[in-house]
Amino acid sequence: MDIQQLKYYKELCRVKNFTEAGFACNLSQSALSKQIHKLEKELNVTLIRRNTRKFELSEEGEIFLEYAGKALSLYEKMLEDIRFKKEIRIGSMTVLSPYHFAKVMSAFMEQYPDIDLILDEQTADQVLAHLEEFDFAILRSLLITDTSKYNFITLYDDYLCAVVYDSHPLAGRKSIRLEELKDEEFVFPQKGSGGYEAFYDSCIKAGFTPNILYEFPQANTIMSFVEEKIGITINFTKVCQESAGSGVRMIPLEDAPHFPISLIYPKNVILTDPQKLFIRFIRKWKKESS
């Protein structure tokens, strides 16, 4: 008896017709019939009553169908564990490049070449909408509203700064308060990016609603609009250092809000061995890089 015979038998019981089942199994009717006879001979029972006009299982055939279904389900689960459990799916916000997370992934893949790391980069709101589809998420921690359901490992901490064009009246300042920008016109990231929410909430806490002229998904586009004096922005310091051009000035914010980026995964789940390895690797990397 082998797995393929169980599949033939289950399909036959599903369609209740040798010709149709043979077609579905890519066998002739006679070849399928021979496979069923082999099963019956090995089991020393009659599985299908052949003296009736309609397709009919014997009592033993009904019992065998139940166990065949269980065996096939267990077989598929075994294949899934073998083939796919060495795959780690990470849903990540789009602004990872300035933090050089690729180096972390490269080091992990070099150490564990048999584990596939799949990084699915999307907007933060898209990652949140499909959080259950990922083993881990990389997001700014503020986006998780129900923190009791998740574990957080802080990967990076970043804080806000103001970005103005080089001829702006504030360009020469060494630092400013966020509230001093209340009358400015802003260029922001798109809603749902995580950055938009962080910047907008920071302005509200500073006592004003920002006047947002444009929203763009890419930091480089935002910086180019600032450079052309269309507006100013606030952004994460690390992002600005990577994407700001020569025509803009970064100004530290006094008491700048901090917005950590975390590796996030659900509590109360049984982790696979590759997932445990990944968490241990991240914790070790954090300790060595701090």
TrEMBL record:
InterPro entries: HTH-type_LysR_regulators, LysR_HTH_N, LysR_subst-bd, WH-like_DNA-bd_sf, WH_DNA-bd_sf
Pfam families documented for this protein: HTH_1, LysR_substrate
Record keywords: DNA-binding, Transcription, Transcription regulation
SUPFAM superfamilies (UniProt xref): Periplasmic binding protein-like II, Winged helix' DNA-binding domain
Entry's Gene Ontology cellular component terms: cytosol
Any GO molecular function: DNA binding
Keyword Transcription regulation found: yes
Keyword DNA-binding: yes
Residues of the HTH lysR-type domain: 1-58
Family: Belongs to the LysR transcriptional regulatory family.
UniProt protein name: LysR family transcriptional regulator
Origin species: Candidatus Mediterraneibacter stercoravium
